[in-house]
Design brief:
heterodimer; A: 280 residues; MetI-like fold; 11 helices; B: 322 residues; alpha/beta; Rossmann fold; 23% strand
């Protein structure tokens, strides 16, 4: 089994790894397959008599002030939140790994230039950049949001990967591959990248939690996923006005955010321990 | 006899903290002939591993091979090659076996995969052909149950099996020259003998030239055709193996023999060589072995060249003149 497979396996065999992975998988499956069995999350069946209904048999999570079914919106919101998180993290990990590999393997001037750029980028508050772009770009499409979050999230990852590459370059099997006449591309993609995957995977898992929070925050400010499409952050924002009279409209999406982020962080922790344990 | 490698006045230098360069390998010359084994013997720090790395131009920066050094591979000037041509030499014409089979294999890939890597880097074959060839190589190096081991990861193999894999990798592209840097140091004694046996058979069967780097005189006996004893970045004695064992002439070589325990003969205290190899940044002036040499005399303050002791037998000591 490869080290990454081994780390996943080991993480799965800890209680917190199994519980958190179970939660994430469950949320993903419900988000993926749940909506057809639920009411239309956008439908407003009875805006006068059906608004702000407490949880009950016909609406397990109640309804919001526009009489929409909160459960359907939370489940559909999971699609958006998870898709944004996974794709944005995928993008930032790819960018970070690419820059880190180039900087770490080539070293010298290339490394110095790239790392100073990263230092500069890290000194700019990410949230300000996002708010600026989003303020200028009304009704931003979800795909652009994903690219924006992904493109501003890779700086730390590039440093992480560079550090791993600097360490791995000294490994005897890298010299052995060079002595064998292996091509440079092959050394990078076959010897350096796969052996840096463990820490990268940990960073990605923890990154998912961060991005879900970020997206929820942006949507709460009305700058992320645009209404009426359901998003957890947007739902909490909408429920603000009725928080005292109909708290379920805000509590359930809030719980969804907390549970998902908690599970992602717990799994990241379990994975980190499993990756560290590889060397022992 | 066909000459395959000709090394002349090889010097490898590194800068010290102040930017001054020092020479861990300082003027090494030797030749390799087809089907023959040359052993370089020396203590750690004498420069023997750097010598082997220099043959593949793998000296890690800021180290470099200095001007005036010459490495000729048949008709090719190795030191003039550009990166792609150099890559074609590595593995294809000179194969290398590294010291530690525990760290020289990539933990992420199966051994079959890693042997195939060497084949695919140089030969125009398909992946399936490379895999078949990897299996043949594993069988050739005497891997027990080779078909099953092809898909094993390095951590599933013992040290001896891993070293067999390393040899198979070094042989993958059928090099003319095999450089083995301490190939058995990390292995149990019983496994050492097996690995050396495998190397010897391969040399004989394929007519490869072998450069065997070791600190262990015991390995050299019966395996190498010629032996060069290295000390402080230079060869201090070079002879055919039988001559060297019959008549070790340089005081350092004699010291090496005196510090090896013998099974036969009267039981005596071992006579270690006092002191250690000086650091490369501070090679002693004159004869470099002078500070540790029991036979040093006035003339040792002048650096000796390689002087003849007998036919095909030279040493770097003024005592050869007597």
């Amino acid at each position: 089994m490869t080290p990454v497979g081994e780390a996943l396996h080991r993480a799965w065999h800890t209680p917190r790894g199994r519980v958190s992975a179970g939660i994430l998988v469950a949320i993903g499956l419900v988000g993926l397959f749940g909506p057809p069995y639920l009411p239309d999350p956008l439908a407003q069946p009875d805006i006068l008599a059906g608004a702000n209904l407490p949880p009950g048999p016909s609406h397990p999570f109640g309804t919001d002030q526009l009489s929409r079914d909160v459960l359907a919106r939370v489940v559909t919101g999971a699609r958006v939140s998870l898709a944004v998180a996974v794709l944005a993290v995928g993008l930032s990990m790819t960018l970070g790994a690419a820059v880190g590999l180039v900087a770490g393997y080539w070293g010298g001037g290339v490394d110095a230039v790239l790392m100073r750029l990263v230092d500069g980028a890290l000194a700019v508050p990410r949230l300000f950049v996002l708010l600026l772009v989003l303020a200028l770009w009304e009704r931003i499409p979800v795909i652009a949001l994903i690219v924006l979050i992904g493109a501003t999230g890779w700086f730390g990852t590039s440093r992480l990967v560079r550090g791993e590459v600097l360490r791995l370059r000294e490994e005897a099997y890298v010299s052995a591959a060079e002595a064998l006449g292996a091509r440079r591309r092959r050394i990078i993609f076959r010897h350096l990248l796969p052996n840096a995957m463990g820490p990268l995977l940990v960073a990605a898992t923890l990154g998912v939690g961060d991005v879900i929070l970020l997206e929820a925050g942006l949507s709460f400010l009305g700058l992320g996923v645009q209404p009426p499409a359901p998003s957890w952050g947007g739902m909490v924002f909408d429920a603000r006005a009725v928080l005292v009279t109909a708290p379920w409209a805000g509590i359930f999406p809030g719980l969804a955010i907390t549970l998902t982020v908690l599970a992602a962080n717990l799994f990241g922790d379990a994975l980190r321990d499993a990756v560290d344990a590889r060397g022992r | 006899m066909t000459r395959v490698l000709d090394v002349e006045n090889l010097r490898v230098s590194f800068p010290d903290a102040g930017g001054r360069r020092f020479y861990p390998v300082d003027g090494v010359s030797f030749r390799l002939d087809r089907g023959k084994t040359l052993a370089i013997v020396g203590e750690s720090g004498c420069g023997k591993s750097l010598t082997s790395l220099a043959l593949l131009r793998l000296i890690p920066p800021p180290g470099r091979i200095d001007e005036g050094s010459r490495i000729r591979l048949e008709d090719t000037d190795l030191l003039a090659l550009k990166s792609e041509d150099l890559r074609q030499v590595r593995g294809r014409r000179i194969g290398m076996i590294f010291q530690d089979p525990m760290t020289s294999l990539n933990p992420v890939f199966t051994v079959g995969n890693q042997i195939a890597e060497g084949i695919l880097a140089h030969l125009p074959v398909s992946k399936t052909q490379a895999r078949d060839r990897a299996l043949q190589l594993l069988q050739e190096v005497g891997m027990p149950d080779a078909p099953a081991r092809l898909d094993a990861y390095p951590h599933q193999l013992s040290g001896g099996m891993r070293q067999r894999v390393m040899i198979a990798i070094a042989l993958a592209a059928e090099p003319d020259i095999l450089v083995a840097d301490e190939p058995t140091t990390a292995l149990d004694v019983t496994v050492q003998a097996q690995i050396l046996e495998v190397l010897d058979q391969l040399r004989a069967r394929r007519g490869m030239a072998v450069l065997l780097i070791t600190h262990d005189l015991g390995i050299v006996a019966g395996r190498a055709d010629r032996v060069a004893v290295m000390y402080a970045g230079q060869f201090v004695e070079e002879a055919s193996t039988s001559d060297l064992f019959a008549l070790p002439s340089h005081p350092y070589t004699q010291g090496l023999f005196a510090s090896v325990p013998r099974i036969s003969g009267p039981v005596q205290r071992l006579a270690p060589i006092p002191g250690t190899v000086p650091p490369a940044a501070a090679w002693p002036s004159g004869c470099r072995f002078r500070p540790r040499c029991p036979k040093a005399f006035e003339k040792s303050h002048t650096e000796p060249p390689m002087l003849p002791v007998g036919p095909g037998h030279t040493m770097r000591c003024w005592l050869a003149e007597e």
